[in-house]
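Suppose you are handed a protein chain with no further information: no name, no annotation, nothing but its sequence. What can you learn? This example shows the usual starting point.
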Amino acid sequence: MNLGALLQQFVSLVSSAFSNAAAEIRDMFGIGEHDSAPQDPGTPPVGTLIGTVDDGHGLLINVYAEQTDTSVNMTVKVMDGLADLRGFYMDVGDSTQGVSVDCDGAYKIGDESVTAVGARDNNMNGTGEKFDLGMQIGTAGMGRDDISQASFSLQGVSLQDLDGLTFGVRATSVGEDRSDAVKLVGEFDIPTPPAEPAAEPPVVPPVAGNNFPQLANDVSSIVLVYGTPSGDVTGDGVYAAKIDAVPWYVEDDLDVWLIDATNYLAGTDPNVQSGAELLGVAITHGDATDFYAMDGDPGIDTAPAANLVPDTTVQYETIIG
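A reasonable first move is to predict its three-dimensional structure. Written in structure tokens, the prediction is:
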């Protein structure tokens, strides 16, 4: 090989070395183009806001989470300002036993012992905190990536278990000139889940049996009296549902068709659906109206209200169809 060829090879090697060094500098200090498009802070990720930290100079980072059947899905996002997320750290409770994480980068799990993960720049040294779990996000510097949002999935712990626990965010390339770095520590604040609506008590069905006598006169109407104030428009403290226009040919022993009547009301009347118990029935037969309690005795009883004015009225043909 002649001197010219050797000189050309030497120049090529030197040029390549300078190019590689320049690339490393760009990666470290965030100089030049980067692949990741900035995130839109106006569109928060799915889930509930459970934590927020800021640097006091315009940088705001939020943490969101969503409980699923098998995991807690979490997202860390830069909401205001500019920063390249490098790491996320958190406590998970009294023990890390059974805890696992599904994330894009390296991670460590250990009871109150994690302060650094992966590259040397991803650490929480100097904060005075030691965490149960730590993750690395992306690469050093913003030359290769400039990450403002990162998501991961946590197993072995519930969202409510995280309430009041500490988390930390490591970010570099912070600020308009992208020259600062931060280590921010916050505390999870998990909203109390809404209380489950109380289940409506079941409708207490009447007991078919010997509650009513065989009357000598035709039944013309009945008023079923339920022990609930739901639907009480007359103010007597009970709910009275009248079944009117009972035809002459209907059996005059109410025990025979009471179940049909009460089943109709339980299926169509919301006041009867609200756990209402049938206290008794006022039966109009001939010129008399008598009240019979649901006590297994066909004798006349005292009504629970002085004037059983109906709160609602339906026709007999409607309930029988």
